[in-house]
Amino acid sequence: MRTVVQQRGEASTRRMIEATRALLAEGGLGSVTVAAVARRAGTSNGSLYHRFGDRQGLLLAVQDSLLTALENEAVAVMDEAAPLEPRPAAEHAVAGALRLFASYRPVLRAFFVEGQSADAFARRNARCLHLLASHAEQLLVDRVGLTPTRAAAVYRVLFSVGAAQSLFTEEHMRGEPVARDELAAVLIRLVLP
């Protein structure tokens, strides 16, 4: 049984992680300082240092937490698509991937773009990317009937589209915005042989 002190400590840790996530969404890695996180979480700088060691420790904990959530959601999308016929499986997987790229945009931008030169971030990023690729490619082979080579190529195109959505807003793109369902329709034609 957890004590009241343990419960308060866990709640404080969750507030610090959520505060960091909010700061990442607002201004990227540069906006995450110990003081800003402590202020937003309603805690002290010392409490943050006690729990995470330093800013880097906090960012690594947040990265792991957020990428684990992304991985879990992505695997769930693939698992939901697995029993479907090829076209519905492809539609479900593509729609889910586009939704996830949109909802995790600040996380992907912070850790995969801004933090790409940090070895500690790069290792966790690579684990995430490998997990997502293996699940997506296996779904494309098993449910859609693609060869492993074609599945890998299709996944890279899908990932590239998602990564572009994480890097750029519709305002950055040239011309009229493309609705997510229109983009999904084009991508599904790519997926289906």
TrEMBL record:
Q: Which UniProt keywords apply?
A: DNA-binding, Transcription, Transcription regulation
InterPro entries attached here? Homeodomain-like_sf (IPR009057), HTH-type_TetR-like_transc_reg (IPR050109), HTH_TetR (IPR001647)
Q: Where the record puts its DNA-binding region(s)?
A: 33-52
Domain of life assignment: Bacteria
Would the keyword 4Fe-4S be found if you checked this record's keyword annotation? no
Record keyword Oxidoreductase present: no
**Where in this chain does the record put each HTH tetR-type domain?**
10-70
Q: Which GO terms describe its molecular function?
A: DNA-binding transcription factor activity; transcription cis-regulatory region binding
- Name of the protein this chain belongs to: TetR/AcrR family transcriptional regulator
The species is Aeromicrobium camelliae
